[in-house]
Design brief:
The chain is an all-alpha fold. It is built from 22 helices and no strands.
Length: about 450
């Protein structure tokens, strides 16, 4: 009986990919989980910071968003350093420094110190997410990348579910040792992040060949599949700026991601105050109800990659999800029932978070190597600007209306613009694929638009 070599190779690659899913992704998820906890736990402290140190709603929105400004400006330089020194060392460095600064948030005394520490936290964390995405390009074939990114996004969605109750429970320590509850929250969660950084340094392999739990054949299979169809061979940014940052599909993906993040971060940073305005009382209970948004987000990052494998046109699916976000946010504004509002927040997060793996799948299929390190960081940089705009815009609207939930008007506007950009993305992707059709990527072809 003859043996089909292709079937044997496919079985070897599938087995190796499963190992990576269970051995590598949990470490990457742990780092991103704590990153999300440390960047968003300030939302739980919003009311306490107003009462204890006099930070206004507008000042809180500016301070929450200013994190993303420093993060954005250093995103590309950070990822270029990562490409030089390696993901393991750089991700560990990021976790150790941002953990220390997150713990230092316990020393906030007013607006100025709040702004300064949030700004420094952004500097420390810059480059984490694109470094994780870069690792996906080194370990996974194109057909598996949306699934891998979806699993990585489980980290922030689970953080939304459990971060609120954990943070709320820590804030119940108010008065212990002479510290406010929010000080305990920042201290404990910052120290845990530093411990994760140590784990990353000692346990995270950078490339398949470094993984002791893979055979040589499995490592080679993963590396070959991950590099299949790569057309970017540049080793320096100078002279290749347009290829790294200026290709139309990269710019449009970045713009759609910008408006997604205005919605995403705006909602996340204001869920606790929206829930509290619905007459929910107690830090723990507010955190628990706020976690419903994380449940919706978790459903999104699991369900959409599953649908993606059966839906050939990625850009069309992005458009459908943007339209669904618009519909659910309009419904939120129109509904007055508190339970209905909480459910609609969760539903909105299904679509907002579910879109995220698709952005990165579109980008990863069309860049590699140094161009991937630079291009993915650029897309994330533009998105981070949305992370600044979202909380600040929510704060401005709330300051005018007095209603935390009125920030969903920002979501409606962002969703309309996102829907309008989708046809432009489809055209840009088709043009990019035609331009590179002389060297097609075998496994990327199934993920591209037809």
């Amino acid at each position: 009986m003859s043996v089909n070599p292709r079937a044997v190779a496919d079985a070897l690659h599938a087995s190796a990919t499963r190992k990576v899913m269970f051995r590598l992704l949990p470490i990457m998820c742990a780092a991103y989980f704590m990153a999300y906890i440390d960047r968003t736990n300030v939302a739980l402290a919003k009311t306490a910071l107003q009462a204890d140190v006099g930070i206004s709603v507008t000042a809180f929105g500016l301070g929450a968003g200013i994190f993303f400004i420093s993060y954005a400006f250093l995103e590309v330089p950070s990822n270029l350093i990562m490409h030089r020194v390696g993901p393991r060392r750089w991700i560990a460095r990021i976790a150790l420094t941002w953990g220390a600064l997150s713990a230092a948030m316990m020393f906030v005394q007013g607006d100025l110190s709040f702004y300064l520490l949030r700004f420094l936290l952004g500097i420390a964390e810059a480059g984490l997410y694109p470094a994780l995405m870069y690792m996906v390009t080194m370990w996974f074939s194109q057909k598996n990348r949306a699934t891998a990114v979806g699993f990585i996004y489980l980290a922030p969605t689970i953080a939304l579910v459990v971060g609120g109750p954990i943070g709320g429970a820590l804030m119940e320590l108010d008065g212990l040792g002479g510290l406010h509850g929010w000080q305990w929250m920042f201290l404990v969660e910052g120290v845990v992040t530093m411990l994760v950084g140590v784990v990353v340094f000692f346990r995270l392999p950078e490339v398949p060949a470094d993984a002791k739990w893979l055979t040589a054949e499995e490592a080679e299979s993963l590396s070959a599949a991950a590099s299949a169809g790569r057309t970017d061979h540049e080793t320096r940014i100078r002279g290749n700026v347009k290829k790294a940052f200026g290709r139309p599909f990269i710019v449009i993906v970045a713009l759609i991601y910008l408006f997604n993040q205005i919605t995403n971060v705006g909602i996340v940073f204001n869920i606790p105050s929206i829930v509290e305005d619905l007459d929910v009382r107690g830090s723990f209970l507010i955190g628990l109800v706020s976690g419903s948004a994380g449940i919706g987000a978790t459903v999104g990052v699991l369900l959409v990659p599953y649908v993606h494998r059966r839906f050939r046109n990625e850009t069309q699916l992005i458009g459908i999800l943007a339209a669904a976000t618009l519909t659910s946010s309009v419904a939120f504004v129109l509904v007055s029932d508190p339970v209905g509002k909480v459910v609609l927040i969760a539903v909105s997060m299904v679509f907002v978070f579910g879109t995220l793996p698709l952005f990165w799948s579109v980008a990863m299929a069309r860049m590699s190597g140094l161009m991937a390190a630079a291009g993915l960081a650029f897309i994330n940089t533009v998105g981070l600007i949305g992370g600044f705009i979202g909380p600040y815009a929510f704060g401005l609207v709330e300051n005018v209306t007095g209603d935390p939930g009125s920030g969903f008007l920002v979501v409606i506007v962002s969703s309309i613009i996102g829907v309008a950009l989708v046809p432009l993305l489809g055209r840009a992707v088709r043009n990019e694929d035609r331009a590179t059709s002389s060297t097609p990527a075998p496994e990327a072809s199934s993920a591209r638009n037809h």
